[in-house]
Amino acid sequence: MNFEGIYTPVITPYREDGSIDRDAFAAQIDYLVEAGVQGIVNGGSTGEYYAQSMEERAELAAFAKEVIGDRVPLVIGAVAIRLPDSITMAETAARIGADAILVGSPPYSVPTERENALNALAIDRAADLPVILYNYPGRMGINMGEEFLDRVGRSRNFRGIKESSGDINRVHLLARDYPHIQLGCGMDDQALEFFAWGAPFWICGGSNFLPKEHVALWKACMIEGDFSKGRRIMSAMMPLMRVLEQGGKFIQCIKHGCEMTGNYAGPPRPPLRALNKDDKRQLEQVVRVLKRTVAEIEAE
Q1: Residue 187 within a domain
Q2: Which of 1, 20, 69, 84 is deepest in the core (most CB within 10 A)?
Q3: Which position among 31, 134, 136, 219 bears the catalytic label?
Q4: Local confidence band at 2 (pLDDT 50, 70, 90 cut-offs)
Q5: pLDDT band at 246, cuts 50/70/90?
Q6: Active-site option among 31, 65, 162, 219
Q7: Is 162 among the residues known to form the active site?
Q8: Assigned domain for 262 exists
Q9: Contact 127, 91 (CB under 8 A)
C-alpha cells in the first residue's frame, strides 16, 4: 500500500455530558471525504484517543469503517501505554477491514530502541497490515532512531512514517537512508520542506476544517510540481499553524475550526477545556484571511 495525499486524523465529537456523538462523527467523516481528502486516521491524538476507554476506541474504529466503506483508506491508531491495548487495537483494525495501523512509541515508559522495536513488531504481528510509524518524541519521550528503524525494517509491513520530531535533519535521514519507508509530514509548519524531500503524504489535524486548503498545498507541490505556488499557499497557512501550536490548544482549536464549518465538534474531554472568546476570535480571523488568500491563488 502506498500512502499519498492528505490523511485527516478525524476528531471525536462529544456531547456536553462527555458521550460520543456518533451522528456528528459520521457527518465529519462524510464532510472530509466529500472535500477530497485521500485518507482518514481514526484514533489519533487529534481524535483524543488517550481520553477514551478501550471499548470506545474499538467501537469507534468499527463505526468509522462502517461510515467510510471503501471510499478512502482508513488507518486505525494503535498507540497506547500498554502493549496489550495496542494489540487490541491492531486486532480490531484487522477484524474490521481497515487499510493500515498507526504505531507510535508507548508514552511515558521510555524504552530503549531495541525494546521499542520489539514492541512495534509485536503490534505488527497482531494485525499483519501496512504500518505507519508515528515518531513524536515531544509526546512519547523518545525518538525512533536508526537502530529502531533497522530492526522494524525486517517486516515488510512498515511502509510509512509520520515524522513529528520537528528536527529537519530527521527528514534528511529518512529520505536518504530509509527510502523504503514512505516519509509522511507530521510537522505542519514544515510541510513544504517535507514535500521538497519527496514526502507523498501529510497527516494534518487542520484538515479537519480546512481540507481543501491542505489538499491544495499537497497538489501544488506533489502533483503539479509547482513549488512557487506551494510557497505562496504555505505562506498563507503559516499564521494558522502558529495559532494551532501556541499555548497547547491544538485540539481545542481544531474542534472550534470544525464548528466554524458548521460541523458539530463539541467540547474536548478533560483535562482539556474549550477555547475562550479571545482565542476563538483570533482563530476565526486567521481562518478568514487564509481561506480568501488560498482561493485567490487557486483562481489564478
Answers
A1: yes
A2: 20
A3: 134
A4: very high
A5: confident
A6: 162
A7: yes
A8: no
A9: yes
